[in-house]
Structures are given as C-alpha cells and as structure tokens.
Amino acid sequence: MASRAQDDSSAGYQPLFKSFATDAIHVGSEPEQWNSRAVVPLISLSTTFKQHEPGKHAGFEYSRSGNPTRNCLERAVAALDGAQYCLALASGLAATLTITHLFKAGDGILCMNDVYGGTNRYFRKIAAEVGFDVSFADLSKIEEIKAALKPNTKMVWIETPTNPTMKIVDIQGCADIVHEHNKDIIVVVDNTFMSAYFQRPLALGADICMYSATKYMNGHSDVVMGLISLNRDDLYERLKFLQNALGAVPSPFDCYMCNRGLKTLHLRMKQHFKNAMAAAQFLEADPRVDRVIFPGLPSHPQHELTKRQCTGCPGMITFYIKGKLEHASTFLSNLKLFALAESLGGYESLAEHPACMTHASVSEDERRELGISDTLVRLSVGLEDEEDIIADLDQALAAARMEMK
C-alpha cells in the first residue's frame, strides 16, 4: 500500500498509485542500457543509425521512426499511466490528429462539448470539413451520452476536468455505456489537466489516454509535446505506424526535457493541489467573486465523483468575478505574480481570460451555452508560496473592485 500524509486537501481521494515516484525516476532511465552506464538518459541527436547489414538494425534506423531518447520517455510515461505502450508526438494537437487518423471520412466522432479550444477548433473546422461526422454533447450527463451515440460512432473524446469550466466526466460510467453500445468504439480521454499522478483513465475503461505534455507532465513551460498511452496491441501497432507515417514527432532534446520533468511530477502535483486548494478557498469566501469552480471544493457538483475517480486535483481554478468584462480585464491586468498568459501546468502561476484567449475560436453562442462568459477567469496555480499567491489575487481583486466605484 502506498502511504500518504493526510491533510485537508488529500482526504477522501483514491489511494496514490503504487511506486509512482520510483517508476518516474527509474523506468526508462536504467544505466545498463548505455555502454557508459550513464545514470541520466543520454540525448541522442543522431538522425540515422548504422545497420548490421541491409535491413537489419540494432533497434533504431531513423529518428522519425524511433530514437533512444524518445524511447526512454515513452517507457517512463507508459509506466506512470499503467500502460503497455506510449507514443510521444510533437504537440497535444499532433496527438489528437494522429488518433483521429485511425478513422476515415464518414465515421462518427462524439466529443465532450466543453473542451480545450484547440480541440474544438480541430474537430469543427478540420475533421468535420474532411468528412468526419463530428458531434458534441455534455458527456458528464449519462442521458446525453446515450442520446448522442450513433450507428456510425467510432470514437468518443472525453476531457476531464473540462477546459475551462472544470466539469468532471465519469470515465468508467461513460466507457461502460459506450462499449455496451458498441464494443469497437474507441474511448479517448484527454488527461492533460489531471496528469498521470492524479488520474489513470486506462484503469477506468478508456482505450486511449492522451496529453498535451506541454502542461503538467513536463511542468516547466519549456517544451511543446503530446503523449498517447494505451494497452491494446492492435491500436498500438496502428498508432505506431501513424506516428512514423505522419511524422509529427518531438525532438530528442524535448524528449529529454520532458523526461526530466517527470522525475518531479509527484512533488509538483502535490504542491499544485495544496496551493490551488488554498486559493480556491480564499476566492470562494471573497464577496468580490461570484462563483468558484474547483473539483477539490465540496461545493463542486461532482466533488464526490472526483474523489472516487482521482487521487487529487491539479492547480486549475475557474471563477466568475463580479461585474463585467472590464472588471475581469482590470483584475487580470493588475496581477503581479500571476502572468497573463495562455497554457497551464508550469511551475509558475498563470491567469487567462478564456473568452478572449484560449477559447476565442469557439463561437460566441457556444461560449454562452458552455458558461464561458466575459467574467470567467481561469487560473493555473503554480508552485510559489501560498501566501504570495493569495496576496496577489487579493490585490488584483481590490483593483477590479475600484473599477466598480
């Protein structure tokens, strides 16, 4: 049994995954794989590898199809996801594109309606235009899942928590319904927000777990990358072919950097959770805030589901500031510790305005339906001192309050 020191933030969640930190540090980093017995995986920049004889190589032939440094990363991520396989791609959207290439024009794709703006844009403006039958539904509601499945549905795309309104999808419940409808439908979970430390979708019935590793998995805002984890041999062979054939692979240096980030994932996620809980509690008690959405708060409508499904919560908070667009803008412009920037999951705290930034490509009507209003603010709470995080939020709220007078 994995041990954990209980505190207010961690109480009631699923047990931590056994040997997570040990696997993060050692799997894929074994010194014995190198002639030099290097403790830290080497960065193999070679694009090509000498063969024993024509058509017979020693495991690698060309760096698009496979690279020693990328192999180290893929092995480590597979272990952390409880998976047999992992494939690294050049970005989260490259992973999305690669997965979608498993299917053909005319096939149905059912996607969670509240997803990352780039995912929404890809499915609506690219996949749909080349012939995929793309539909969206609130997959956090069982009745909507059942109603949205079609005879031609081939893939169901879940994002949980959703971006930016932090809805939680019951992965096991959704996967059971989908596979009962048709066992051949591929259930994909975008696990970017939770990371491998807080959630294992494959253990909950998903066929594929994917990430924008740019976020928590790397954790340092210095790598753009995507990851795909899975257990099925047939899907792996097809995706491995697509990884090579499409060619959207990360550089060896980026693989090295992401692998290095994994070594502290367990430490970072614990602190993200602790800091985010403190910030969420502060915001929820503040009269200058209309509503806070954070799965770690008992007020979150799916708080109990979160505890049944996850080992904790990431540093993502969404809240509605009182007032109008100008008050949200004043708040964001006056933050000093939080940087006004897109992305999330780095060690530094970030704040953004989804309606104008990450979800600007989503139509105004759709944003309104999803609750992405002009007063919605998304925070990625970093690893700074808790008191400094709260002080920055407080002074920026005070500046926005002055705007109301």
UniProtKB/TrEMBL annotation:
Q: Which reaction does it catalyse?
A: L-cysteine + H2O = hydrogen sulfide + pyruvate + NH4(+) + H(+); L-homocysteine + H2O = 2-oxobutanoate + hydrogen sulfide + NH4(+) + H(+); L-selenocystathionine + H2O = L-selenocysteine + 2-oxobutanoate + NH4(+); L-homoserine = 2-oxobutanoate + NH4(+)
Give cofactor(s), names only.
Answer: pyridoxal 5'-phosphate
Q: Which organism does this sequence originate in?
A: Cyprinus carpio (Common carp)
Family statement drawn from the similarity comment of this UniProt entry: Belongs to the trans-sulfuration enzymes family.
Q: What are the record keywords, sorted?
A: Amino-acid biosynthesis, Cysteine biosynthesis, Pyridoxal phosphate
Where does the record place the modification N6-(pyridoxal phosphate)lysine?
215
Write out the GO MF terms: cystathionine gamma-lyase activity; homocysteine desulfhydrase activity; pyridoxal phosphate binding
Task: Return the InterPro entries for the record.
Answer: Cys/Met-Metab_PyrdxlP-dep_enz, Cys_met_metab_PP, PyrdxlP-dep_Trfase, PyrdxlP-dep_Trfase_major, PyrdxlP-dep_Trfase_small
Q: Is Amino-acid biosynthesis set as a keyword in this record?
A: yes
Q: What is its EC number?
A: 4.4.1.1, 4.4.1.2
The family database entries (CDD domains) matched by this protein are listed as:
CGS_like
**Cellular component per GO?**
cytoplasm
Q: Which GO terms describe its biological process?
A: cysteine biosynthetic process via cystathionine; transsulfuration
State the gene name recorded for this protein.
Answer: LOC122133984
Q: What is this protein called?
A: Cystathionine gamma-lyase
Q: Give the quaternary structure.
A: Homotetramer. Interacts with CALM in a calcium-dependent manner.
Its annotated pathway reads:
Amino-acid biosynthesis; L-cysteine biosynthesis; L-cysteine from L-homocysteine and L-serine: step 2/2
